[in-house]
Amino acid sequence: MKTNKRTYLMSSIMIVLFATIFLLIVGRFLYIQATGEIDNVSLEKWAEEKRTTSYTLDSQRGKIYGRNGMTLAYDRPVYRIQAIVRDSYTTNPEDPRHVKNPEKTAEKLAPLLDTDKNYILRRLTKAIEQERFQVEFGNAGKELSQQTKERIEKLELPGIRFKEESIRYYPNGMFAAHVIGFAQKQDGLITGKMGIEQAMNKKLSGKDGHISYEQDQYGDKLLDPNEIIEKPENGNDVYVTIDQKIQTLLEDVMTQVETEYSPEGITAAVMDPKTGEILAMSNRPSYNPNKLEDVENWNNDIISTPFEPGSTMKMFTWAAAIEEGVYNGNEQFQSGTYKINDRVRGVNDHNWGKGWGTITFDEGFARSSNVAASRLVWEKIGTEAYLNYLKAFDFDEKTGIELPRERKGTLVYNYPRDKITTAFGQATSLTPIQQMKAATAIANDGKMVKPYVISKVVNPATGDVIKEKKPEVVGEPISKETSDHVLNLLGSVVSSEHGTGKKYKLADYSVAGKTGTAQIYEDGSYLTGYGNYIYSFLGMAPKEDPRLMMYVSVKQPDVEIGEESGSTPVAFIFKNVMQKSLHYLDIEPDKDTSEQVNPIELPKLTGKNTSSIKQTLKEKGLNVTLIGSGDTIKAASAVKGEELLEGDRIILVTNKPVMPDITGWSMRDVLQLANLLDLKVETMGNGYVIKQSVTKGTPLKKNDYLGVELEPPEPMREQTEGNDHTETDDGSDEQA
């Protein structure tokens, strides 16, 4: 009886216990069903989160445009290839959605991804073994072009899909690379690293958007996906002052000099001295911002590399003397050597101290006499007054140009010899852009303007101008009378019998300018030997009312002793760029000589009969390139009233455009063709075209892709004027 009672008791306890547990579980389920929550977590929201995927909607970085509206930088779509390897993703065996045959897939993809078949096969096989959903192919599968994507899609390989991304792209390659700079992805965002891309990064950068929606286990969007979209805000567009034609001309000529003379470096810039706008700027070595391997020179030397300028400095020394009222150009002095006292080493003229006997100060300027410059500072102006002029020309400050990493030179002005050698461009260092800024006062009636490269910032969505740059006068170190006087002296450097700049003459424009030969300081001493200098020229034209100013320097060119001076490649760059740029800007020639070039004024071209207009232009001496076989001209690379020079290329697009043979074309010609036909052009290299991706005779339509490969031209030497091989400036022993 006791045993039965105990059994009954234990059974009752177990029944009550299990009943309690059951009621708790049922109650819990009922509670969950009624409230839809577990531990204050909504099951509905939790399930929604599990089904919801989200990703960023990339904003477009603003574009960079040139003065003529040419696109210099933009976000280019590229593609990342992905391979789905999970077989459960395929719902219909007749239409596989995963990689069904890894061997065949690897074999087909390898040549298009420019990689090894076994590499792709290993990636696919490993992903299948690990039961992964998809796999990518590292760097080989990234940043694929639209053309490569389309070629892969034509293979119709199961399981292969693409993800669109963006990279920063520079359609003109090396064009103004140090000015535009480049941008790269950093933490998922395209960020400016150099040049305008870095300086204007905040304005160019956009704000990314966001999208989220519900999906099934295979990543497909549900029928009712609860989609939420936050649209991205694109960055602002930046317009720069760089002129397409002048910059392209400068790049082409600098490439020729680089090929012919193998210099250590070249710098050149073209400026409107009335406004301060930089129309062209380039350096050698340069780089292609699309391909950043093995870059030799990251610096924009025009703004970032101060050096002792040499005799270009003399224009400011003479300007100070004239403004101070102590200059008499007819006063004579003994050239050759000059010592201020027995304790300070003397100064020699650049012909090893021989000089030219007793000459006037005006002749001393034309001959680039160091002795004349030293006497003006020490005996006429006074060293302290001269220092004030140096500061008035802002030689102790940066110019403030809107480019990163600008450096200023150093006024070395401690000892007597520092002060007199600064007068002719030694001891003190300056950047080329500092010299150009100061020279605007000479070209602009005494008013010094600030150089700039950003013309405006525009909201691409509304077209509103957010910021616009206007010319800015930042000083008036000399008077109009002084500037006129200095311009005449600078003209004598080029035009007079004794001038050091005779080889810088232009055929139909007068030139005012100053030559420079700067010593190179390395390892505690100055280099010696033929060609071991930085040869430069700062010139402007026309002389009476300068509309363009150009600075060119060539460091250590490979010139042959006795056959050509170091200034020969400098003159080649200056003359080619300046002459053609002045004509392109429709600036009236001011010389009437037998050498004058008569520009060809164009008639109306569009809508005209193809054969008749082609014949007319050929008779005028133009190089006519006809695009297509249509009977009507639909577009042209120049318009009615524009002036070209004999031999210039003009492109005529007919109503049936087809691809021409562009072998031998310059980059400028290729860009004109691309703009006329709305082609997406990609350039590789620099110089002249040797290969083209679209074969001759192929019909062309808007947004077609054209890839071209360019190489520098054959070595080309300038035909110099006369037989003047005199060194143009300072001697090799003029430094304190």
Automatic annotation (TrEMBL):
Family annotation (Gene3D superfamilies): 2.20.70.70, 3.30.70.2110, DD-peptidase/beta-lactamase superfamily (3.40.710.10), Penicillin-binding protein 2a (Domain 2) (3.90.1310.10)
Chain intervals for the UniProt region annotation (Disordered): 701-736
Keyword terms: Membrane, Transmembrane, Transmembrane helix
InterPro entries: Beta-lactam/transpept, Beta-lactam/transpept-like, PASTA_dom, PBP_dimer, PBP_dimer_sf, PCN-bd_Tpept
Pathway info: Cell wall biogenesis; peptidoglycan biosynthesis
Main location: membrane
Residue ranges of domain PASTA in the record: 655-712
Catalytic activities: Preferential cleavage: (Ac)2-L-Lys-D-Ala-|-D-Ala. Also transpeptidation of peptidyl-alanyl moieties that are N-acyl substituents of D-alanine
Ranges that cross the membrane: 7-31
Identification of the protein by name: serine-type D-Ala-D-Ala carboxypeptidase
Organism: Lentibacillus cibarius
